[in-house]
Amino acid sequence: MHFFIVDLFKQLQKEYCKFKELNKYQRIIKLFRGQLMSKKEIESLKSDFYNQANKLIFANGFFSTTQNKKAAQFLAGTPTDSVNNDDQHVVLEIEVHVPSTKLPLANISHLSANEAEEEILVAPGALFLLRNVEYNEDDSVWYIKLTLINEDHERLINSQYKSVKMSNTVERQLVEVGHLLLKDTNDVNRLRTYYNLIQQHLCLSKDLYLVGLGWIAYENNNNPLALKLQHDALQAYQKNAQSNQQALIASIYQCVGTVHRRSKEYDLALQYFNLAIEQLSTDLLMDRFILIDCKINIACIIKLKGDFHLAWEKCKELAIMSSNQTGHFDFRHIYNKIASTDSNDNSRTDFDLDYCYNWEKFVDFCADNISGYYDIISNAYKKIANIYFYKKSDDLAVELLKKAVEVKMKYQPNDVYFIAFCINDIVKYYKNKKYYDMVVCFYQQLIEVNMKVSEEGEDSLCIIRTYIDIADTYHEKIELEHAVELYKAAIKLLVAKEKTSHLLISCYAKMADVYYEYGTLNLALNSYAKAIEMLESNRSDEMSTKKCCYEKMAIIHEKKGNSEQASVCRQKAIETTLSLDQFSTSFNVQTTEKKNSTTDTQSCLLIDNQQKANGKRERRCPIVDLLKQGYSF
User: Fold this and answer.
1) What stretches of residues are TPR repeats (predicted)?
2) How far, in Å, CA of 358 to CA of 340, rounded?
3) What percent of the chain has pLDDT over 90?
4) Looking at the predicted structure, is the pLDDT value of residue 30 above 50?
5) 629 or 217: which leads in pLDDT
6) Dihedral of CA 625/627/630/633: which sign?
7) Do 157-317 and 330-433 show the same overall fold?
8) In which region does residue 143 sit, left (phi positive, over 0), alpha (psi from -120 to 50) or beta (all else)?
């Protein structure tokens, strides 16, 4: 069995290389998986999402997904109207960052019994970040949004796990393992047994038990007991005066400082954090985790006391320290922890607008004194914007995204992916508001950035997609002439590109729609015919496009009085519909057979986590001007 699993993994690695090459122009792809889940599992996930930051979920076996959302919805089963049933229909929506993903995943549709299912197989050990759990009443289906991450993802991996890896003494490592044990089992008696076994078999001090329980008392919000236990442990270690206990004593001071910070006794907290740092300064095998954690707490307290300047200086000190600890600390996470802290951070269970405002205020201060930390500041703005979006404060979110884009455009214009992400969210907001001029303005900004950094120049697929997006915007805006110009520009560029036929088809079909609305019926017919000519494959989505094109051509021929041609087009539309129905039936039969054969593994993932106005508007098009003046086609 081992031989077959190893061979399968190697084959998956080879397919993964092909997969990355085919998707090299796509930074993010989405995968889907349909399955049944118990209501209890879903409630547990919802609770974890709302009460636990950065909930991670682990898949311990080969994991089957699809790029076809409809296939996933079908595999989830026939939806019911009741959200109270024990078995719930679930679609997992998985975001994959293709350039950075290390875990092998591959398109195995050519090896599958049902190629139309577009199956993507993910290797064992997949780690997912839980991003959302929501029930769609229209579909009667739960949608669980996940992001595939790497196991060495700095910001998301448990801090206690890092602490164990970085502790330089056995005693410190054992305390951290005990902490993890309690978090995992919530069984204090088992923890006592753990420490007793340590004392009996490792000949270590029983006072280690006091340090561990002191941290547990802190975790359980029992401040007086935490202080008593740590003071008792400190007296014992000072009495024994062992020379190799600096890290453990520093851990005691760290815990006491953390308790005082929670009680808002900031001066006392600073005193103990500094004592911990002083204790570590005499330790040749300095415990970097305690050192950095104490410095983070000091910076947080200084920020809470209102000294933004000194807090920012402490942040920059931590940036230097974390840069020397590759693989253990992410300064972006450290900075946001400090920037977001407020007087209620110990009891906070939700992000309110005041909390976000105070966070933004500190980031604004740092942005005025940016000192080279452009990436940190822009990412902080984006993070706060995401919270504003979550709180339905879209106006505030967009202003933050504009700040993020401004920082990047000024200092890091080559970070096109980040800028594009922000601009796409801004554009989505303005589209919903029907502020089309703002949509075009931000798309123009995106094109200019891509023009500067893309090796392909105006031939860049990202730029071509943006042209199409702008053309769609002008179509919505009823500026049809500008829409046609941009569709033509995109088509001219796409003709020279390989593996972009779906974009060409889409451009021809959309341009035909514009011609039809413009009243130029012959041009509309030609464009529809061109789209149909390119529709050679039998994919279901392309057959649907072909059917729509034939139906619209039939309407145009009727308007022109060509009844015979209209009849031919209608007949072809019917034939395409029959082919599409036949395809769907075949697909459903095959996926039903597959689903029935895998019902016992359905839950294998969840191991742990303006209406159109009449007439035309005579306005200049800035993008068309840009194309005509600087970038001829």
Assistant:
1) 250-283, 505-538
2) 7
3) 21
4) yes
5) 217
6) negative
7) yes
8) beta
Read off φ and ψ for residue 24, nearest 5 degrees.
Answer: -65, -20
Chain center to CA of 69: 18
Angle at 323 between CA 320 and CA 324, to 5 degrees: 95
- Determine the Cα angle at 498 with ends 494 and 502, to 5°: 65
Q: DSSP for 569-605, please give it.
A: HHHHHHHHHHHHHHHHHHHHHHHHHHHHHTGGGTTTT
User: Which residues, including other chains, have CB under 8 Å from residue 500's CB and lie 6 or more apart?
Assistant: 461, 464, 494
| Region 2-149: CATH code | 3.90.176.10
Q: At what angle do helices 501-518 and 480-494 cross, to 10 degrees?
A: 160
Among 367, 373, 430, 376, residue whose Cα is nearest residue 403: 367
The whole-number average pLDDT for the span 7-16 is 74
Alpha-carbon distance 339 to 380, whole Å?
Answer: 9
Instruction: State if pTM tops 0.70.
Output: no
| Contact residues for 84 (Cβ-Cβ < 8 A; gap 6+) | 39
What is d(CA 414, CA 406) in angstroms, rounded to the nearest whole number? 13
Helix H or strand E segment including 366: helix 353-368
Q: Are 172 and 247 in contact (CB under 8 A)?
A: yes
Residue 446, sorted as left (phi over 0), alpha (psi -120 to 50) or beta, turns out to be alpha
Residue 301 has pLDDT above 90, yes or no: yes
> Could you tell me if 43 and 76 are in contact, meaning their C-beta atoms sit under 8 angstroms apart?
no
CATH number belonging to domain 330-433: 1.25.40
What digits encode the pLDDT tens for the residues 236-280? 877 766 656 777 888 899 999 999 999 999 999 999 999 999 888
Map out the domains of the chain as residue ranges.
Answer: 2-149, 157-317, 330-433
Q: Which of 97, 76, 87, 98 is nearest to 32 (CA)?
A: 76
